[in-house]
Amino acid sequence: MTRGRPKKVGRPEGQTNLSDKLLDAAELLFAEQGYSGTALRQVADKLDVNPAMTAYYFKNKENLFREVFLRRGLVVARQRLERLAALSAEGSHTVEDLARAFLEPSAQLMGTRQGRAFLRLHARLHMEPEAFSYALRREVYDESTRAYAQAFHRLLPQATELQIFQKVSLMVGAYLYAFSDTNRLAELAKSQNATDDLLDTTVAFVVGGFLSVKG
Predict the structure, then answer these.
(1) CB 144 within 8 A of CB 80
(2) pLDDT of residue 14
(3) What are the pLDDT digits (tens) for 105-127?
(4) Which CATH number fits domain 18-58: 3.40.50.300, 1.20.1250.20, 1.10.10.60, 3.40.1190.20?
């Protein structure tokens, strides 16, 4: 009987950072199968390494999911804050400027396979165990989301704080669905180019929502 070749315990040949490769593989699997549907062994199998390597770097599945989410989520949050700081430094900006600054970091992720996987993973986060999904969202996005809510409120003082947070929540839901490849836009529009100007369309949609607020 011919035995299959053993899984390599160390780093695959030519690979400079196994932990990053494991994060990439896990990101794709979590996006496709969710947290509960993904096993550590599947992540290792994608790279043809021993499953013990996944446990070595990340201890368990919850830690792996956390690291996958933090890796891109923290970058998005930081970029949003940087854009908001730049607008504040200019001294004058519009609701459209704020919406675009908030949405652009996530829209940029649509340009790569891994970025799209993260958006898909993020869009389905509400279906994952609340014990860590809520904590992750608070840790990554609370600061930037609250900062943008305050900025929108300064431009729309006639709105209540509750109305502003409702609009911000709707903005988040709209972009996650639109950007994450979980929608049927191409199918419904019968066009492979349906997402070409999706950022501009989403910005316009969000601006309309905010400006509809009545005091």
Answers:
(1) yes
(2) 39
(3) 999 999 999 999 999 999 988 88
(4) 1.10.10.60
